[in-house]
Design a protein that fits this description.
By secondary structure, the chain is of the alpha+beta class. The protein contains 9 helices and 19 strands.
């Protein structure tokens, strides 16, 4: 027979269904909690008066119900044993309070995996804590577990990453987790600046000066000037309520190595000319190549430049801000495109710019003004070669 489960008198005319703990077809034991309702600020459990299989559920979560409202229909064991072949030993009930059930839900824990130590096997908070500790210990063996899973399909090899690569991964995770990124895309005409750069380098060769300026070093100097004009781009956000403005300008340069990305820093760029910047950058690159870079060369950055350069096959990309900095400029591969001058199309060498920034500190208008300022400096590059 089907037994009607109705809402008992809980002291209020109407209460709200908070949680349904069974589904149609589930086997339930006598006194097993079927659902919970909110009574004032308390959570009250509604138990089953019989053991059997849930045949129908008449309510859903958030429904408002009153005393004696029909909640469920349960086919009792008497009918089951005579009309069904169900093996009763396969059914069991999880004894846990609504608070424990909610905690397990928030922690994404299946209570079926926990053995309760309370009365009648009831799951307690200490059982949850013990399960979490055991789970954390298993996580330490995660690489071995994953290898076993993938090796089912063929040969695999587990390798340990170099420390530099691990540091890169941690830094990128930290950046993505903590910074709400926005990227502003633009491009700048570097036709004249590239011609000037080549001519200037030829002049240096004729004077036996063993230094060559690059587009990267030119933009490093340009950024140093822009940071003084836009101090928010040279800052650190503290506790979401204070901004530390840096008076110095130290520019980090993203460098790809066989062991991952590193960001050596050029210090006090605002006080140096492009020739000096070029020399110092070349010195850093030689140190990196010979594995002689010091830890001090990687600290104290204000702003970072990521240059994909001639190796880039994309027009734009989204560089990740080098936490705790608030902005980074990405340079892609320059390309010649036709530009309309009012009368006809003329070929121009255009450099794509990708400015990513922390949207908590910098807004869209700030980023537009920052890029426009950079583009203006590109047109006046001769004033920076001093």
């Amino acid at each position: 027979m089907n037994l009607e489960i109705r809402l008992p008198n809980v002291g209020l005319d109407k209460v709200e269904i908070i949680e349904l703990l069974v589904n149609i077809g589930d086997y339930v034991n006598i006194n097993q909690t079927l659902l919970t309702v909110e009574v004032g600020k308390a959570i009250v459990e509604v138990p089953s008066q019989t053991s059997g299989i849930v045949q129908d559920i008449k309510v859903k979560v958030n429904d408002k119900v009153s005393t004696d409202c029909l909640l469920m229909l349960i086919k009792t064991d008497h009918d089951i044993t005579s009309t069904s072949n169900i093996d009763m030993t396969q059914h069991y009930h999880i004894y846990a309070s609504p608070i424990i059930r909610r905690l397990a839900y928030k922690l994404d824990i299946d209570l079926k995996n926990i053995i309760g130590t309370g009365r009648n096997g009831r799951i307690l908070r200490c059982d949850i804590d013990k399960f979490i500790k055991q789970k954390n210990r298993k996580i330490n063996d995660l690489p071995e577990f994953i290898v076993q899973q993938y090796s089912k399909y063929g040969n695999v090899k587990l390798i340990k990453l170099e420390n530099n690569k691990i540091s890169t991964i941690k830094q990128l995770n930290n950046s993505w987790k903590n910074i709400p990124h926005v990227t502003q895309f633009d491009e700048v005409d570097i036709t004249d600046i590239e011609e000037f750069r080549k001519n200037y380098n030829n002049k240096l060769v004729s004077q036996n000066i063993p230094i060559k300026i690059t587009l990267l070093t030119i933009f490093t100097k340009i950024i140093s000037v822009a940071l003084q004009e836009f101090p928010y781009f040279n800052s650190v956000l503290i506790n979401n309520n204070k901004l530390l403005l840096k008076k110095y300008v130290n520019i980090g340069i993203v460098v790809a190595t066989t062991n991952g990305l590193i960001v050596p820093v050029l210090y006090n760029v605002n006080d140096k000319n492009i020739l000096t910047i070029s020399y110092e950058l070349e010195t850093l690159l030689i140190k990196i190549k010979n594995n002689k870079l010091e830890l001090s060369n990687l600290k104290g950055g204000s702003f970072t430049i990521s240059n994909l350069g001639v190796n880039s096959s994309t027009i734009m990309f989204t560089p990740l801000v080098n936490f705790p900095e608030v902005a980074i400029l990405g340079l892609s591969k320059a390309r010649i495109i036709p530009v309309w001058n009012g009368n006809n199309f003329i070929p121009k060498l255009m450099l794509p710019l990708s400015l990513s920034y922390d949207h908590r500190v910098i807004n869209g208008l700030d980023s537009v003004n920052f890029i426009n300022f950079i583009k203006d400096l590109v047109l006046d590059i001769r004033n920076l070669i001093t």
